[in-house]
Amino acid sequence: MTWTKKDVLDMESLSAEEINIILDTADSLKEISKRPIKKVPTLRGKTVILFFQEASTRTRVSFDIAAKRLSADSISISASNSSMVKGETLIDTAKNLEAMSPDIIVMRHSSSGAPHLLAQRISASIINAGDGTHAHPTQALLDMMTVRERKGSLKNLRVSIIGDISRSRVARSNILGFTKMGAHVKVAAPPTMMPKGIESLGASVTGDMKSAIEGADVIMMLRIQKERQQSFLFPSEREYSKRFGLNISRLQHAKPDVLIMHPGPLNRGVEIAPEVADAPYSVILDQVTSGVAVRMAILYLLAGGMRDADDH
Amino acid sequence: MQMIIKNGHVIDPGNINAIADIHVDNGKIVSVKILKKASGVRKGGADGKGLSPEQNVSPGEPEAGRVIDASGCIVVPGLIDMHVHLREPGEEYKETIESGIRAAAAGGFTSICCMPNTRPVNDNGQVTEFIIQTARQCRSVNVYPVAAISRGLAGKEMCEYGELKEAGAVAISDDGRPVVDSLLMRRALEYSQSVGLKVISHCEDPSLSGGVMNEGSVATRAGLAGIPNAAESIMVMRDIALSELTGVPVHIAHVSARESIFAIRDAKARGVNVTAETAPHYFTLTDNDVKNYDTYAKMNPPLRSVDDRSAVREALSDGTIDVIATDHAPHSILEKDVEFDMAANGIIGLETAVGLSLILVSKGVMSMETLVEKLANNPAKILGLESGIADGKTANFTIIDPKRSHVYHAKEGYSKSKNTPFDGWEFPGKVVTTIVGGVVVFSS
Ligand SMILES: [Zn+2]
Q1: Among all residues of chain B, which has the CA nearest to that of A89?
Q2: Hey, which of A49, B120, B243, B386 has its CA 20 to 30 A from B305?
Q3: Best to test chain B binding among A168, A196, A198, A233 (most B CBs inside 10 Å)
């Protein structure tokens, strides 16, 4: 099978085969980052625009490094530093970006569906780097790559995702992604953070930490945002941490070879205890490394790596 | 000045259901001559057999005047849409009073009620008079303004209902927004009744409704914030309680949730004077139609679940919901060609309401008579407007060809805006003539 998709918008629209292509490509490109000269000429002459309407240093830097290691020219445009974006409609911004003839636009936006709107209007490839509470496909793919490296395969693994599922695009994309690859995903949260109908994405639901931890091969903790207290989602960080935080004593119920993951940034002492985050079974920093490889793979595939291989 | 509408299947529920000739003179009905009793009207309107040529002759042709052959068509009292947003004054790029009136005429409506959320808000006599005067100049569909409950729709203080009534308002509503303050709602009910203005309530608890589509698995998948049914039903229950407390009737706008319907059904059963409307999109679409972030499927209240749609249909058939009103809400691409959560709520509806209602009739959900009640007789009753086909009444008619199936194209519509999810839909029948006060204001 070869790569034919123009955009990577969400996990729903990626098939298991396409996920495998991305992960296999990422595995093969990972080695570049270990070389003394971390650069290959593969995407020389290609232009990648990093269009971040919503601030995110970590994801933007990861894409930027990925583009540069493949020799693409990458330009960052963010809402805060650009008069082009402020007060302009998304469609107008899109037309302006289009006029610069980019090959790929990496897009982060606070509105769910914004990359889909852009993808319909623009001939450049769109990579969704996070839209509202909808999707964050590259995060899910880097999580899957990290787990696959450690466990060999994703099939039949038990993955537990714990935290504010309602407002998490990471949770949605991971549920869809891991389930497509044959894993069993369980989500745990207080009822205030559990969205209606999440089962329809393929996850099983629990409100009980013990049942989320027991037997899990992978435990993924989500960041708790303090401002969420304003919508009465939980009484206090203290109580949240007591009931849904991951600490050493809770981990005693887990499998000995469990992997601990977190998309970052960490709220140490709230959703995750410091000694858990830094423990050997924590793969939080491996996730960051996989992030660059997965994003290189997607840039490579979309920029024609497989679409028109005779370019090279 | 004379007109004969010949050989149509005349349906005015509770009054006439027969093949008849209607004679009109000077804007009034002068006689209704029954030619033949109608039968088999439950599902498709005029009975297919029609009349033999001999029977088709009616005595007393007018010496001068217009003859409209309504053979094979249904002739009903002029339809009334009691929930329309005309956007003038203030947002004329979306709709003007004139363009809205043309759309209404094409949709078969002889009267429309326009909501007060214009710029400026219709919260004083001058705005009400401006709307009425502008509409009169069009010499077409009747426009009855609905004025605001609270000044500036701010929910803080009452408008001068006496002045608004004198200026020509028929009802009050803060539509677009709920009246959150229960005391203000109580006082508005009590005071407005004394001046003869009906209260129409947009039911929404804003602390629960902070989403952009129906709460449920479709919203969860799309990552869109949900609006639960209770955001509507809580306010419906409150308004029923206030109607009971004050003894003043209340009309519930655009019912979408089944829990609202249960509350209204119970209230009616124990004698509370509550009436309700729904819009064609709530009996036609569900939240499954919010596909690929299509902002033409975004409205408030939102498209609900399949169960809610079933409950709305049942409520139309059992009388819990009295009225079909469009909530015609024109928006331009400036408000709609944007991110889903940024997009304005609402769709246009004047030119699709009859077509969508006819689909319900063809599905057997309601009879043609019930359709006429929901679109003509009941809104008239609730607002105290004239309706019906009988000697001496104003000659307002809508003539529908129930068998003229056609495809609706928004770009060919009369509304200035094109924001509709029904573009390209096929409707089983069509409005062919709209007559206001004995004058044809639309024919096709
Ligand atoms: Zn409303």
Answers
A1: B338
A2: B243
A3: A196
> Is A135 in CB contact (< 8 Å) with chain B?
yes
Contact B274, B264 (CB under 8 A): yes
Q: Is B174 known to be catalytic?
A: no
Residues with CB under 5 A from ligand 1 (ion): B 175, 202
HEC profile of chain A: CCCCCCCECCCCCCCHHHHHHHHHHHHHHHHHHHCCCCCCCCCCCCEEEEEECCCCHHHHHHHHHHHHHCCCEEEEEECCCCCCCCCCCHHHHHHHHHHCCCCEEEEEECCCCHHHHHHHHCCCEEEEEEECCCECHHHHHHHHHHHHHHHCCCCCCEEEEECCCCCCHHHHHHHHHHHHCCCEEEEECCHHHCCCCHHHHCCEEECCHHHHHCCCCEEEECCCCHHHHHHCCCCCHHHHHHHHCECHHHHCCCCCCCEEECCCCCCECCCECHHHHCCCCECHHHHHHHHHHHHHHHHHHHHHHCCCHHHC
Domains observed in chain B? 2-76+392-443 (2.30.40.10), 78-383 (3.20.20.140)
Nearest-CB residue to A198 (from B220, B292, B293): B220
Angle at alpha carbon of residue B433, lines to B430 and B436, rounded to 5°: 135
For residue B300, the CA-to-ligand 1 centroid distance in Å is 7
Active-site residue identified among B327, B337, B341, B401: B327
A133 touches chain B (CB under 8 A): yes
Distance B209 CA to ligand 1 centre (A): 13
DSSP string, B148-187: PSBGGG-SSSB--HHHHHHHT--EE--TTS----HHHHHH
Question: Which of left, alpha, beta for A87 (phi over 0: left; psi -120 to 50: alpha)?
Answer: left
Of B321, B192, B298, B210, nearest in space to B247 by CA:
B192
CB contact under 8 A, A195 and B220: yes
Q: HSE of B434 in the Cβ direction (CA atoms, 13 Å)? A: 24
B215 CB neighbours in chain A (<8 A) are: 196
Per-residue pLDDT of chain B (444 residues; tens, 9 = 90+): 799 999 999 999 999 999 999 999 999 999 999 998 876 444 444 444 444 433 333 444 445 578 999 999 999 999 999 999 999 999 999 999 999 999 999 999 999 999 999 999 999 999 999 999 999 999 999 999 999 999 999 999 999 999 999 999 999 999 999 999 999 999 999 999 999 999 999 999 999 999 999 999 999 999 999 999 999 999 999 999 999 999 999 999 999 999 999 999 999 999 999 999 999 999 999 999 999 999 999 999 999 999 999 999 999 999 999 999 999 999 999 999 999 999 999 999 999 999 999 999 999 999 999 999 999 999 999 999 999 999 999 999 999 999 999 999 999 999 999 999 999 999 999 999 999 999 999 999
Contact B222 A113 (CB under 8 A): yes
Q: Which of A118, A133, A201 to mutate to test the interface with B (most CBs of B within 10 A)?
A: A133
**Helices B182-195, B230-246: inter-axial angle, 10-degree rounding:** 50
* CB within 8 Å of chain A, chain B residues 279-318: 292-293
> Which among B217, B221, B339 has the least Cβ separation from residue A114?
B339
